[in-house]
Amino acid sequence: MRRLNIAGLAAGFRRADGGVMAPIFALSLVILVGMAGAAMDVGRVMWVKRQLQSSADAAVLAGTLSVASNSSAATTAANDYSGLSGKKNTVLGATSVTMVGGAPQLKCFSSVKVPACTPGSGKYNGIVVTQEARVPMYFLRVVGVTEMTPRATATASARGGSGRSLDVMVVLDATASMNNLDPNCSIAGASKMECAKAGVRALLQGLNANLDRVGFMVFPG
Hints:
With 221 residues, the protein is of the alpha+beta class. The chain is built from three helices and seven strands. The protein has helices spanning 6-64, 71-80, 192-206; strands spanning 96-99, 105-107, 126-136, 147-148, 151-157, 167-173, 213-219. Strands 1, 2, 3, 4 and 5 form a five-stranded antiparallel beta sheet that branches. A two-stranded parallel ribbon has the order 6-7. Helix 3 (192-206) links the parallel strand 6 (167-173) and strand 7 (213-219). The longest helix is centred in the N-terminal third of the chain and has 59 residues, at 6-64. The radius of gyration is 33 Å and the shape is elongated.
């Protein structure tokens, strides 16, 4: 009887197995690299969308501060705090960001009672900002996806209500040192006393004369 060369058969099997595994490994490597690349592309889109949402939120909050009193100023403020190129919350990772509709949308919400508005009256109490970004793809181009366009929308209404009254007491320092020049004052060449008076005037302008009460004291008398 012929004796089987077990060692030779095993070596031949290993050589045949290696020839099959090489293309399988290469194909698997391509698939893994493709999946990792696709995950990177999608991850960048999600990163851009998060920035879009944050900038849209900031834009509507800035706009609602004056939407009930000055719609033009509200639109300008919303644009300034948007994610558009060159604005305060520019979105990174996108080739471009646009405002859907061309501008912030001023709204008259019937659900907001104060400040109330009538549709068609030209008065508004809310604002909506929708932004869209164009995000280029790198790895997904091999399957025909050259870019993605995430969107983000934010809505806010003007703050209303009658307000809460304030009791304010202003104490003015009248010592001799207040006659010295104040180098930190925004008014050039002003003394500390003049700068303090200017601060009081600014305070009064920001208070509600119908609600707030203000008292003055001078020290020393």
